């Protein structure tokens, strides 16, 4: 019976997403922090930084890699990132007839903290930290609150009042789940996750500057050894690996959106050696910067040509 209800809920949600995401891409909505994603063809890997967010696959399937750890989720699951995390992702199940449809709701630590103040959730701040990304099985109560949030797009006048309430309910349901403790740790004063999140924000906001581990440990109010251990436990990366991912993702964005050469990009994202930048870029993306930019542009042009041909039929 539960599976039938979930299937019915997902069909309704997919119809809502298809109405507001009629073309491939990431579509912001009238609800702040809510995005719909549509992909009509399973393609190669993409790279990006996940903000703290609740993510659902409504149709299709997707894989996300955090360092070497793989998270796969489908309409039976949801994925949560509790802190900013550089990831590699890939839609693995999508066709033009049955496109991949995704639902993404970003949130802030203050929203989690407000929930903890309003409920009886209590976590020992000294509890050992857990990975800041997890996949859990979807439940009817959670899916019901997701649909009610999405339905608000059809009644915009209700969004200012009801969207915060339905968002709060979604986060409440996640907190009730088996991995809810990961969100609790994010905002608990004195918890390792809370301290590491401070370090993460410092790295992200100053990614082009040299990373001084001693200073980062001081900002996080940790010893150097504790910083290394807990940072890797939470993000699956060392602080230096984390910074490198952020730098290379920003470098690729600059290459694809601005008229700059690889050496200038290398300098702007914090590399002192253009050759080192090229090596690390190639290792992450499979091509050196100049070749990668050319390859992506050619692929984009081909897609545009195909789209124009189809639209003219």
Automatic annotation (TrEMBL):
Keywords: Transcription, Transcription regulation. The keyword Methyltransferase does not apply. This is Helix-turn-helix domain-containing protein. Pfam families: AraC_N, HTH_18. Residues 197-295 form the HTH araC/xylS-type domain. It comes from Paenibacillus plantarum. It comes from the Bacteria. InterPro entries: Homeodomain-like_sf, HTH_AraC, Tscrpt_reg_HTH_AraC_N.
